[in-house]
Amino acid sequence: MADKIATRQAYGEVLVELGADHPELVVMDADLSGSTKTGMFAKAYPDRFFNMGIAEQGMYATAAGLALSGKTVCASTFAMFAAGRAYEIIRNSIGYNKANVKICATHAGITVGEDGASHQTFEDIALMREIPGMTVLNPSDAVSAKKLIRLAVDFDGPCYIRLGRASVPVFYGEDAQLEIGKGNLLREGKDMTIIATGIMISEAMEAAEALAADGIDARVIDIHTIKPIDEEIIIKAAQETGAIVTAEEHSVLGGLGSAVSEVVVKNCPVKMAFVGQDDVFGESGKPDELKAKYGMDKDAIIKAVKGLL
Amino acid sequence: MQTLELQKTAAQVRIQIIKSLNKAGSGHPGGSLSMADVVTVLYFDEMNIDPADPKMEGRDKLILSKGHAGPVQYAALALRGYFPKEDLQTLRKLGSKLQGHPDMKKVPGIEMSTGSLGQGFAAANGFALANKLNDDPGRIYVVLGDGELQEGIVWEAAMAAGHYKLDNMVAIVDHNGLQIDGRNDDVMKVTPIEDKFAAFGWNVLTIDGHDIDQIKDAFSKARECKGMPTVIVAETVKGKGVSFMEGQAGWHGKAPDDEQTAQAIEELGGEA
Q1: What number is the ipTM of this complex?
Q2: Which residues contact A201 (CB under 8 A, 6 or more apart)?
């Protein structure tokens, strides 16, 4: 069994690494630095860390001001309060000004777990990908989180990075090649394709193993960059495998499934099915219990694949 | 710049506001005219800026958090030499750099695109924090409306500026008492403004926002104040300088017609 590390933990670690050779890097938080792991940066570089208190809207506008003054800013809170509560501030102060702010939002999706529905966001990818010029990243494990955050800090422009609370299997090797805007082919297959993002990648790989035992040869693709999306890898999958299941820890409305559909419908219409939160609020529970109950696990993917073929 | 000269310049700023809004056929005269004196003092006397080098290192920056008053900022920038005065006639037209609310990507001298209320104020904290980090002597000025104070983010920002002791920042509140739906006091009471800012750790000054000497003096006092941000509550008249607009909420977001424009320019002493 692979090591299990939360992507937020990887975020805290990579911030400390980046702090050394990025003197322009400033980190902000809204009273959740212990949970988002920005506290690790705060300890290493106290002069470049600003706790803005429980004031997410003010934090993201202030982040814009810092960025427009030449700083690279990573500003964190829970995804609900970043993409949700501060949406219009992110849109107008960060997006419209093309401010160099990385919105590193943790505790996304159902795997927030016990905190329940008020803290489980399934809308953030949809909201963020609507903003012109916003890059949207959703790493699947600790290794890809570190690599993608490094890439995000190295380009000038707004970026939303979705991170999770729960420990998830480390999937990528340290030598993995990741590029913003390029999907990763993780498993070849000819019968159909599972396109997944974030923590659904490990579920998709397990599902593909199980499907293989039933004689179904499933391709698996990691779309860690929801925007700009890798059209080429999606079109190729549609042409070569003829059916696509998307899997995300997000609403089936507006997220990865919608983004993939937009590409497929325009270029090579094939049958699709969507694994994700099915337009309902969540509830309290253990992450694995919730993933099973709300249909965002290996079994849900297998069911969707079999329903499609 | 001498007081008399600043007064004359402010009158010319007002005339350009009226002319550009007349040409545009829509826009916000009331809250542009009420800030004409403060904005004129900022661009022509107070701020360390260079129109030939809008991105000059160490410059002072003005963020117009009440972005709907763009016409006053555009007029002042044009008269100060950032771009030709003739461009003011393109306000709000398709393809113009002079958008309905200021766009930093299009206009030299605009430090941040604003328009959605309260955000420019919180962003000003970011500009001020960055200058502290960089030992940049530039000062940050941010203009807010009084109705804008009803936005929650304003008080998040006020709290943060006090907490971080941003003495390189000055907020100016355009206290003309009116907003779109009428008097602040009827829509949503914002007073006492001074006590609210003082409670968040601000140095508070109240002035006549149309008295050039008082405006200059307030900026000078703000510069001397260390360890806390300064707010200048500028008591103003909405529509100041144009008799039929003064104190009228109806002139918040309505352009003057040709006849009204001619009368306004005459009242303001005519174009130089």
Answers
A1: 0.96
A2: A140, A141, A171, A186, A220, A222
SS percent in chain B: helix, strand, coil, step 5: 45, 10, 40
8-state DSSP, B186: H
Which position among A56, A123, A203, A248 bears the catalytic label?
A56
In this structure, are A204 and A259 located in the same domain?
yes
Query: Which distant-in-sequence residues (6+ apart) come within 8 Å of A114 by Cβ?
Result: A284, A285, A286
Please tell me what DSSP assigns to residue B69: G
Distance, in Å, from the CA atom of A184 to the CA atom of B234, rounded to the nearest integer, reads 58
Q: Is A56 a catalytic residue?
A: yes
A51 shares contact with chain B (CB less than 8 Å)? no
Domain boundary among A113, A137, A169: A169
Residues A214, A251, single domain; the answer is: yes
Cis peptide bond N-terminal to B192, omega within 30: yes
Whether A2 has a pLDDT exceeding 80, the answer reads no
Q: How many domains does chain B have?
A: 1
Look at phi and psi of residue A157 and say left if phi exceeds 0, alpha if psi is from -120 to 50, else beta. Answer: left
How is residue B237 written in tokens?
Answer: 């008249």
Residue A153 located in a structural domain: yes
Distance of CA A24 to the CA centre of its chain: 25
Give the residue from A174, A177, A160, A169 showing the smallest Cα distance to A125: A160
Q: Which of A141, A169, A197 is the last residue of a domain?
A: A169
Q: With an 8 Å Cβ cutoff, is B115 touching chain A?
A: yes
* Closest approach of B125 to chain A, Cα-based (Å): 6
Residue of A nearest to B62 (CA): A65
Q: Show the domain range for A269.
A: 184-308
Q: Report yes or no: B77 and B154 within 8 Å, Cβ to Cβ.
A: no
* Interface contact A62, partner B, CB < 8 A: yes
Instruction: Give the pLDDT score at B272.
Output: 86
Q: Which residues of B touch A58 (CB under 8 A)?
A: 122, 125, 153, 156-157, 159-160
pLDDT, tens digit (0-9, with 9 covering 90-100), for B28-39: 999 999 999 999
- Is the residue at A176 inside a domain? no
* A224-241 residue pLDDT tens: 999 999 999 999 999 999
In a domain, B272, yes or no: no
Number of domain units in chain A: 2
Please answer yes or no on whether A97 and B125 come within 8 Å at the CB atom: no
